[in-house]
Amino acid sequence: MDILIFSPDGKTAPFETGLADALPGARTRSWQPGDDNAADYLVLWKPNAEVLKPRERLKAIFNMGAGVDAVLGVDGEGARRLPAGVALVRLEDAGMGAQMVEYVSHAVLRYFRRLDELAELQAQGVWKFLKPNRIAEFPVAVLGFGTLGAQVAGGLAALGFPVRAWSRSARPGRENVTLYSGADGFDTCVSGARVLVNLLPLTPDTADVLNAKLFAKLAPGAFVINVARGGHLVEADLLAAMASGQIAGATLDVFRTEPLPADHPFWRQPRLTVTPHMSALTLREETIAQIAGKIAALERGEAITGIVDIQRGY
Ligand code: NAP
Ligand code: GLV
Fold first, then answer.
1. What's the number of domains the chain is made of?
2. D-isomer specific 2-hydroxyacid dehydrogenase NAD-binding domain spans which residues (predicted)?
3. 119: enclosing H helix or E strand
4. Which of 86, 87, 173, 290 is most buried per CB count within 10 Å?
5. Are residues 203 and 120 both part of a single domain?
6. The domain containing residue 306 runs over which residues?
7. For the packed helices 115-123 and 96-112, what is the interaxial angle rounded to 10 degrees?
8. Predicted confidence (pLDDT) per residue in 101-142, tens digit
9. Residues acting as catalytic residues
10. pLDDT tens-place string over residues 283-305
11. CATH, residue 79
């Protein structure tokens, strides 16, 4: 069995070794320009068109991340260049859920407990009591109730926040999380929310979802947390909503252009936290174990989870 590995940063050697160790008998290699040789499995992140060219024996493509937008393209153009009949498989959690819960919980609590405002007062040497927020009156809306969104929603509910979440398909919520779906559900989910968390996949249906219309539905002075993809956020709308006070601040981990360009206005917004796409990192050991486990299952003729619905885009 041949496993071909690609990453634009070229840091594929540990995956070659790890997958070879986990799958005795497997031959692993890193893609080099011009390699159009046969492979049973592709393991990749942000592939170029050459890597995705049809190749003999290919059975499945494993994405070394949860989001497959870099493979499919936001307008679906990438889907057309995928080899026909080959499953695209994404990472399911693989250690990202716990990281996402930590990151988002911290951002929500920091805003809820007014810690940025207190830091500004400290910088001025001012001792001033700020009225605390009441948690029961602090609804948080989470867009996306999948592998990561459900964990984040559950974590925030466990802290005591009234949590609403939004998914594509209608289904029951979970303890202390009210679940909405569809266009009507969207409005109810976000209306009056004090914090908005985005954990949707980037697809033609969800691109630009964080826009002026949505910001206007939130509570005045709400807070935005985007940990999904930069293509979800209309950047100019966020800056305008922050200028008007409708949005008090934001924590952004993902951007339309990454790394965020040095002259981007987001760097200079005092109430905006910028982090370099690291709210939930792909963890090497967990990733190798998950992909190797699924390859072994496929080789035994068993079904696996995490297969992307190409039409839906996630
Ligand atoms: P997932 O399990 O596929 O969950 C996606 C959720 O979004 C599902 O609840 C789905 O609804 C919902 N959804 C999709 N399209 C929708 C639509 N048009 N309307 C309403 N709901 C919709 O994905 P995941 O593993 O939780 O990951 C989510 C995203 O997080 C990834 O795609 C990736 O972009 C991002 N991410 C970011 C980082 C980072 O470090 N910043 C790390 C990992 C992942 P259903 O439940 O009905 O299908
Ligand atoms: C990271 O952004 C991922 O999609 O796994």
1. 2
2. 107-279
3. helix 115-123
4. 290
5. yes
6. 2-94+282-312
7. 60
8. 999 999 999 999 999 999 999 999 999 999 999 999 999 999
9. 229, 277
10. 999 999 999 999 999 999 999 99
11. 3.40.50.720
Each residue of 163-183: b (16+ CB within 10 Å) or e?
Answer: bbbbbbeeeebeeebbbbbee
Q: Does residue 180 sit in the same domain as residue 237?
A: yes
Which protein residue's CA is at the shortest distance from atom 1 of ligand 2?
Answer: 65
Task: Please indicate, yes or no, whether residues 201 and 248 belong to a single structural domain of this protein.
Answer: yes
pLDDT over 80 (residue 19): yes
- 189 CB less than 6 Å from ligand 1? no
Q: What is the pLDDT of residue 78?
A: 82
Q: Which residues pair with 223 in a beta bridge?
A: 195, 249
Crossing angle (nearest 10°) for helices 284-299 and 13-22: 50
Residues 86, 235: one domain? no
| Most informative mutation of 96, 103, 202, 253 for ligand 2 (most atoms within 8 A of CB) | 96
The two structure tokens encoding residue 277 = 């796409």
